[in-house]
Design brief:
three-stranded mixed β-sheet, 7 strands, 2 domains, single chain, alpha+beta, about 210 residues, CBS-domain, two-stranded antiparallel ribbon
Amino acid sequence: MVRKGLQDELLRIQDELGKTIVFVTHDIDEAIKLGTMVAVLREGGRLAQYAPPAELLSGPADAFVEDFLGADRGIRRLSFFPSAGLELTSDAVVPAGTPAARIPAVEAPYLLVTGPDGRPLGWAEREELTAGDVPADRLLPYGRPFVPGADSLRAALDCAVLSPTGWAVAVDGDGRVTGVVSQQTIGEAIRAAHTAGRTDGEKVAG
């Protein structure tokens, strides 16, 4: 968490000063987050590839660069696709204390329960909710939410994968729920983004 904070602060300072910064790291995730251009060096300091992060991930110059980027470079590449276009649903979101008759009949196995302030409390099975309020200690954790537009598809996918229900929770800048999205829907958005990236170029998420 401290390292992430330092990275964010470096980006803030660079944006404020508008100066070129040369940052040396062995962490490819750090290089991709901080760099507008990334240089990959071979042993002996010989340049293997110099390119923007998105281009580096989508088109490694050779086997050395590809190996350096790692087997999960496709996941890293998702950092450059925005989550703003994800199709969210609010049908699977219910405020705590909603009467049984007003619990939505949706196909999702779990519903996200929110508090009076609209913030997420946790997941509950629909059958449990129709039987009455579910105690907070029986709700499944909602995991880490993401902010559509501000976060990338990689962040949204991570939220869904880590969720016990397989659904990611989307919130606004104040932490209020704006909807939920399934792994399947995120997967469809990823496939569409890769297709668009091959034809129109990749767009960097904010």
